[in-house]
Write a structure and sequence with these properties.
The complex is a heterodimer. Chain A is mostly beta strands. Chain A has 2 domains: 2-87, no CATH class; 89-153, Roll (SH3 type barrels). Chain A has 1 helix and 13 strands, in the order H-E-E-E-E-E-E-E-E-E-E-E-E-E. Chain A has one helix spanning 2-16, and strands at 20-22, 28-32, 42-45, 53-59, 63-72, 75-84, 89-92, 99-103, 112-116, 122-128, 134-140, 143-149, 152-153. In chain A, strands 1-4-5-6-2-3 form a 6-stranded antiparallel beta sheet, with no helix packed on it. Chain A has a 5-stranded antiparallel beta sheet with strand order 12-11-10-7-13, with no helix packed on it. A two-stranded antiparallel ribbon of chain A has the order 8-9. The longest helix of chain A is centred in the first third of the chain and has 15 residues, at 2-16. Chain A is globular and about 40 Å long. By secondary structure, chain B is mainly beta. Chain B folds into 2 domains: 25-96, no CATH class; 98-166, SH3 type barrels. Chain B has one helix at 2-22, and strands spanning 25-29, 35-38, 46-50, 59-67, 71-79, 85-93, 97-101, 105-107, 110-116, 125-129, 136-143, 146-153, 156-162, 165-166. In chain B, the strands form 3 sheets. In chain B, strands 1, 4, 5, 6, 7, 11, 12, 13 and 14 form a 9-stranded antiparallel beta sheet that branches. In chain B, strands 8-9-10 form a 3-stranded antiparallel beta sheet, with no helix packed on it. In chain B, strands 2-3 form a two-stranded antiparallel sheet. The chains are: A mainly beta, B mainly beta.
Chain lengths: 154, 174
């Protein structure tokens, strides 16, 4: 029983640290077969209930390699591709009521800066670590908020 | 007295504009695939689709005007075969913006470009073998005459700064 519990907790912790992202708009999104190619291999678009979840697996200067998951009817499908970073985002969570916290490095001990929380404001992902941190940019009123976040939602 | 000051003021103004013009950064779009021009730095709204056709000498000149994390704001000049040009403004994905790399030095009949750590010739650099006229640098950013590029050589990525590049898609890059 204890072993089962340990396995369950281990899996749960791995799942919570999966670097997932969403597409923050319903426009057309091109997918590529490498980090630089100009010719898309596929285009996708979200609509209504059809939403894509992106699991980030590799970083490059302009794109992420992702495993994108989508529901077709009752079944889920997974495919792999490269996607432009401008199409990968999360939504930051409140660290205190009405505030979000941005860190200068991927560490809770690093310098913190607080900003107002705005609901449904996309935080575009530039980089990620394997322990749950995302380097994001949040464009707001001609100011670019950038730094590391740990608490976010999809 | 006031007239002299006014003349100096005008001279300084002209010099400043001259510097700005010299520092203008251009890039090339090295593809005949459709290239999207977006309405802003983040949203997916496409305002124009650029179709270049190099065999017909139909290509775009691109001047970078502003930078955002994923896109450049650009003035795109379409060069028509009849000699006319059309200017369009919008945002381009950075991955579409390239420069052609030139050599800094030659050794044993090989060409090498220096990729600097900072936009300064005093900073550290690595020499990367380059095939002049065909190797490209994908532009991440720019500062004055310097381009922040990433280039791929034998499956390895090199990222850094260079001034040794050109953006002319139709002529030689020597």
């Amino acid at each position: 029983m204890r072993i089962l519990l340990f396995v369950f907790i281990s899996i749960a912790s791995m799942v919570s640290y999966a670097q997932n992202a969403v597409i923050p708009h319903d426009g057309l999104v091109c997918l590529y077969d490498d980090m630089f190619s100009e010719k898309p291999v596929r285009t996708i678009q979200q609509a209504g209930e059809l939403k894509y979840i992106l699991r980030l697996t590799e970083n490059s200067q302009f794109r992420f390699k992702v495993v994108y998951k989508f529901k077709n009817g009752c079944e889920y499908f997974e495919r792999e591709a490269w996607i432009d970073k401008v199409n990968c985002a999360v939504y930051s969570c409140e660290s205190k009521p009405g505030r979000i916290t941005i860190y200068s490095t991927p560490s809770l001990k690093s310098k913190k800066t607080h900003f107002d929380y705005i609901k449904d404001e996309p935080a575009y992902i530039c980089d990620f670590t394997n322990d749950g941190w995302l380097f994001v940019v949040i464009p707001r009123n001609n100011v670019l908020i950038k730094g590391w976040i740990k608490h976010y939602t999809l | 007295m006031y007239y002299m000051l006014y003349r100096y003021y005008l001279l300084i103004l002209v010099m400043c504009f001259g510097c700005l013009a010299e520092g203008a950064n251009t890039v090339a779009l090295n593809s005949e695939e459709p290239i999207m021009l977006y309405a802003d730095a983040y949203n997916p709204e496409v305002t124009y689709v650029i179709h270049q056709d190099f065999s017909s000498d139909f290509y775009a000149d691109v001047e970078l005007l502003d930078t955002a994390p994923f896109r450049f704001k650009a003035k795109v000049t379409l060069n028509m075969t009849c000699g006319e040009t059309v200017d369009i403004y919008g945002w381009l994905d950075k991955v579409n913006c390239v420069v052609f790399l030139r050599a800094d030095t030659y050794q044993n009949e090989q060409s090498y470009i220096y990729i600097y750590k900072e936009p300064s010739e005093k900073s550290d650099y690595q020499a990367v073998e380059v095939l002049v006229n065909s190797d490209i640098g994908y532009v991440i950013g720019y500062a004055g005459y310097w381009y922040h590029v990433v280039t791929e050589k034998d499956g390895k990525l090199y990222e850094g700064w260079t001034k040794r590049c050109c953006t002319n898609i139709t002529n030689s890059c020597n």
